[in-house]
Amino acid sequence: MLTPEKIKQIQKRIKYGYPEGELKSELQKEGFTQEEINQLFKPKPYDMRSWYLTTSILFFIGGMYIVLTTGGFFVLLFSVGLFVTYLAEVKRVNKNN
User: Fold this and answer.
1) Which of 51, 59, 65, 79 is 20 to 30 A from 85 in CA distance terms?
2) Contact of 37 with 67, CB cutoff 8 Å
3) What pLDDT does 48 receive?
4) Alpha-carbon distance 37 to 21, whole Å?
């Protein structure tokens, strides 16, 4: 059974660059199950929603400037694409929660 102290110790070692493979081997030698070990090494979920929204707003503002000065609208299309990606991420996160 993994105690909170042991979990903190393992996370600290990972944070400071201790190789995961060696750490997993040590935990197996100490008698921890593979399920407990996998629980410690779960990948962190990513969240890019704020980046997508901020970037789409910036590209929209820049795109409006370009439309007004040169008439090109490619940057606006890219902005819309980023905003659609943002909406898809919001939907995915809400579905997972």
Assistant:
1) 65
2) no
3) 92
4) 11
- H-helix or E-strand containing 38? helix 34-40
Taking the C-alpha atoms of 64, 69, 73 and 79 in order, what is their torsion angle to the nearest 10 degrees? -30
Question: How many other β-carbons are positioned within 10 Å of the β-carbon of residue 53?
Answer: 17
CB 68 within 8 A of CB 91: no
Structure tokens that stand for 35 in this block: 């399920």
How far is CA 70 from each of CA 63, 74, 79, rounded to the nearest angstrom?
10, 11, 17
Length reported for the chain: 97
Encoding tokens for residue 26? 């040590």
pTM of the predicted model as reported, rounded to 2 decimal places: 0.61
Mean pLDDT of the region 16-34: 90
